[in-house]
Amino acid sequence: QERRQGNAMGVAGFVSRAVFMAASFEVVLTAMTASPSASLLSSWLATNWMFLHAVCGCVCLSLLLVDARPASGASRRCDWLAMVLAAVYCFHQFEEHGFDVFGRRYPFVFHLAKILNCDLALEGGRFLRVTGSCGLDEMTILYINVYSVMGLFLAPLLLPTKWSCCLVLMNATLIFSNAVLFHLLPALVFWEYNPGLVQSALMNAPLSAWALSHLWNRGVCNKAQAAAAFLINGPGQVVQALGPMVLARQQMLSNAGQHAVLFAVMLVLQPATAL
């Protein structure tokens, strides 16, 4: 049993790291290169990234659930939780950006326009394009979901155990807050469906709540770190997610500026808080 679980952890870890590194390399390459081939690749990724994530999520979650318990030992337990949270969130991204429960393509675009009270349009064709007055486009959404969100979720795999476990707790806080603040509460208040609601109710909310309880009971973070995790990923998540978009809409922040802010918050500030 232990050997079987160890093999699953090794394969799932390799797949998660490989997909993360490949996606990050392609996004950085296409963002910095103006050649026609790079533009073609970036457009293809902006149209299809959510399907790649869904496949990755299915593969990784299947391997990790060979034994549906965290592996023994703090390091392997936190690696297991980090990869499970990342894999499950891939399904959330699919419902938001791929197809929702009504079969609508890229429903998040129209939901976001409603939240920001601005105009967004989804142009079809060979590749999808997001246009409008909201201060973002399909590439902004690609960057946010590939290197910011998934980069943060998989960062614990690259850190020493004493820091990685605390970052996993912070990531679980982010997922739980996202499920409650952006999906469950709005659905109850306005009594209507929003993209990502079903996955949040069935997977993100219960899984992240269990992960928070599991990690907190093992003392992986001190009280100050736990408080910071709550402030950054609880109420602060609204500012993180919508703040750069509002500033870009007011022409106070460029697309490059949005990426810089997201990179600083998701891949510098949050991991630093766990140290």
Helices, strands, pairings?
Layout: H1 2-32, H2 36-64, H3 74-98, H4 107-116, E1 120-123, E2 129-132, H5 138-154, H6 161-190, H7 197-216, H8 223-233, H9 235-249, H10 255-273
Antiparallel strand pairs: 1-2
Helix pairs in contact: 1-2, 1-3, 1-5, 2-3, 2-5, 3-5, 3-6, 3-7, 5-10, 6-7, 6-8, 8-9, 9-10
Short description:
This protein has about 280 residues and is mainly alpha-helical. The chain has helices spanning about 1-30, 35-65, 75-100, 105-115, 140-155, 160-190, 195-215, 225-235, 235-250, 255-275, and strands spanning about 120-125, 130. About 75% of the residues lie in helices and about 5% in strands.
Account of the 3D structure:
This protein is an all-alpha fold. Helix content is 75%, strand content 3%. Strands 1-2 form a two-stranded antiparallel ribbon. Helix 6 (161-190) packs antiparallel against helix 7. The protein starts with a helix and ends with a helix.
| Nearest-integer average pLDDT | 80
- Level of helix content? over 70%
The coarse silhouette is: globular
Radius of gyration: 18 Å
Strand neighbour order, sheet with most strands: 1-2
Element string (H = helix, E = strand): HHHHEEHHHHHH
Poorly predicted parts: 1-8
Return the structural class: mainly alpha
N- and C-termini, Cα separation: 33 Å
Helices, by number, come to 10
Q: How many DSSP-defined strands? A: 2
Q: Which descriptors would you attach to this protein?
A:
10 helices; mainly alpha; disordered N terminus; two-stranded antiparallel sheet
